[in-house]
Design a protein that fits this description.
The chain is of the alpha+beta class and 287 residues long. It has six helices and 13 strands. Helices cover 22% and strands 32% of the residues.
Length: 287
């Protein structure tokens, strides 16, 4: 057999292998393309663990997500029980939409590597005397919520914050100079506006309803890496009399997994599955 003949045979086998691999992938993943988002924001990809059992699960979630604006594509994997969504929609909205179908959802990763962060918000361990602590629910956890940060572009980050069990009222959200939450905003330092003072340290205003829940979604002019290690302070607006009095919750921004960076099913530290960990976080008020 000549060299040219052998090369043609190898090329043919490689093409067949590639086709077989593509066919196998098609059996595992179902990708659904939707219309372009109405709001011209940079999109990001997020992956979620979802207990998918069959095509009916996919169809139910597909129908629920189709009612949201900003979704460009959705990919489902039955073998891995994963849903990947590319959109401009906040993660909290995607999670609640999937949950509306009767199935749970856990965010496994979002954005590119080193472009996502998370901040667990809680009552300060030693609240200042001037700020009465927020009443604790039955589970007696100091945690009151979670903030997710996802890079959308070079100088634009998506902030998705949810709070629970907080007195009704209006609260300001700000970035603080340090990550020391031992004495609440007193130890977090002043509002941080970046090393050059050209960033907006006040991120927005969050309203808490009668049930003690509130959500803030905002596009902020920060890079995620600039916020990692900094504090976040959520404090009642002075003069707001709609709630039971002044209150604050604080947290430290920490890096979180980008899309496809977190493939664990069982935690190496606790030995718990991702679903057991989620139940524990819900009980603590984090979700």
């Amino acid at each position: 057999m000549s060299f040219a003949t052998r090369r043609a045979a190898i090329t043919s086998i490689s093409a067949l292998s590639a086709a077989a691999a593509a066919a196998a992938a098609a059996l595992s993943y179902h990708t659904i393309q939707t219309s372009k988002p109405k709001k011209m924001l940079p999109s990001y990809e997020a992956t979620f663990s979802v207990p998918l059992e069959c095509d009916a699960c996919i169809n139910d979630i597909k129908d629920a997500l189709s009612k949201l604006d900003g979704i460009t594509s959705t990919t489902f994997s039955l073998p891995h029980r994963l849903v990947s969504i590319t959109s401009t929609t906040p993660p909290s909205t995607l999670i609640s939409t999937i949950q509306s179908t009767g199935r749970d959802a856990i965010l496994r990763g979002s954005g590119n590597p080193n472009s996502a962060a998370v901040c667990i918000l809680e009552i300060p361990p030693s609240p200042p005397n001037s700020t009465p602590p927020i009443s604790k629910p039955k589970h007696d956890s100091p945690v009151r919520g979670l903030a997710r940060l996802i890079t959308l572009s070079e100088k634009l980050t998506l902030l998705d914050m949810t709070l629970t069990a907080v007195p009704e009222g209006r609260y300001t959200v700000s970035v603080r100079r340090t990550g020391d939450i031992s004495h609440g905003k007193a130890s977090l330092g002043s509002i941080y506006t970046g090393e050059d003072g050209d960033r907006e340290g006040e991120l927005g205003v969050l309203s808490i309803d009668e049930q003690g829940r509130g959500n803030l979604v905002a596009e902020i002019g920060w890079r995620v890496w600039e916020l990692v290690g900094r504090g976040i302070c959520v404090e009642r607006i002075a003069g707001d009399e709609s709630g039971s009095g002044p209150a604050e919750v604080v947290g430290v921004v920490a890096r979180s997994a980008g899309v496809w960076e977190n493939e664990k099913v069982v935690c190496g530290c606790s030995g718990k599955t991702v679903w057991e960990e989620r139940e524990e976080m819900v009980a603590r008020g984090m979700l």
